[in-house]
Amino acid sequence: MAEQINPWSSTPKMDINRLIADFGIEPFASVKEKITDPPVFIRRDIVAGHRGYNAVADAIAEKKPFHVLTGFMPSGHPHFGHLMVMKEVVWHIQQGGKGFISMADREAHAVRGLSWDACDQYAREYMECLYALGFSGEIYSQRRNNALKDLAFEAATKVNFSELSAIYGFRPETELAHAVSVSMQVADILYPQLTAGVAPTVVPVGIDQDPHIRLTRDITNALRMFLVEDRGTHISIRVKNAPKEALDAVAKRFSGSKKYEGHIDLPAGHTFEETDAIVREVEREFGGFGFLLPSATYHSFLQGLQGGKMSSSVPDSLVWFDDPDKDVKKKIMGALTGGRQTLEEQKKLGGEPEKCSIYQLNRFHMQEDDKELSEMCRACKAGELMCGTCKKETLERVRNFLREFKEKRDEVAHMVEW
User: Over 50: is that where the pLDDT of 199 sits?
Assistant: First the structure.
């Protein structure tokens, strides 16, 4: 039996390949060839898995509408651990996607106990970083978005506490507000289709957020009025939660269809895609949503500077974007590496870059050139590149990034309205 994933854990220990197998996540390699001119996080397999991304990849290739959404819980200052998902969102916008960001202040208040004022302050910092990276689109607060709250209520009608317990491990002592925050997460994921039209939607997240994606896909199906089935010889449209008038309307849209009490059979010649699109239109005409199943990409975690995951509860594990230079230097130069115990062993045996937080920082963010990253890896394994030298070179890259990032944040600070 697959283990539960806790999306709120600050230090999850996860084997991403095992989780892909246990929870039915597809390896991203299965869709990677559809991406032309892939960005760093796809080229280097940092994005390791997906659910339903083919629909988004096809929309990109065919220049059709699609949405990209992710959320940030404003419970602390933004740092390098947040940078990957920010880059993924911006890249999808550059490919033609309509961008959405949820500032999950209700979740921060319910799960972390933060005041609303603190949530707003952190949210402004995230927004500044996003705009500095090139984000365009809608950024909203969960608690201030009435349409979102109504959608969360609708989503909540399709899930019970038994299901929440099975997915998240909720217990009798779990606060109700924590459970409510889950329905808000579901509404976040579906919100782009509510406000900007039904279209493929991708949610770039870390692998630890998969429970929210699975639950949302289940609820999306539960919200449908009809189930469209390809029976091989014909297409069948079955009633789930539809009024009789909606069934009649669907039958009228397909000439030659045969209507029964609880379903409609179509004559040969209709495709699943065409039929499903028409049925979704009818659902919306009769007050339904007709949402498409949301997609997700799952990236691996950037290793913390002291091992494990970057976590704000372990300050030396990460670099905040506003860290003073002396703190940046202390953290980078004191980081855990894949080096050997002695200089002699390092030269003889070589390092282990796959275990090194400094190498991973370069792989994720600090080294854009694939050839130079490959040479760094080779030299480390060959015992030619010493950890001290590598740390100093990486420190300069981090300093340059932070300096330029600060300048960009200052340039876009006026865009933050909260």
Answer: yes
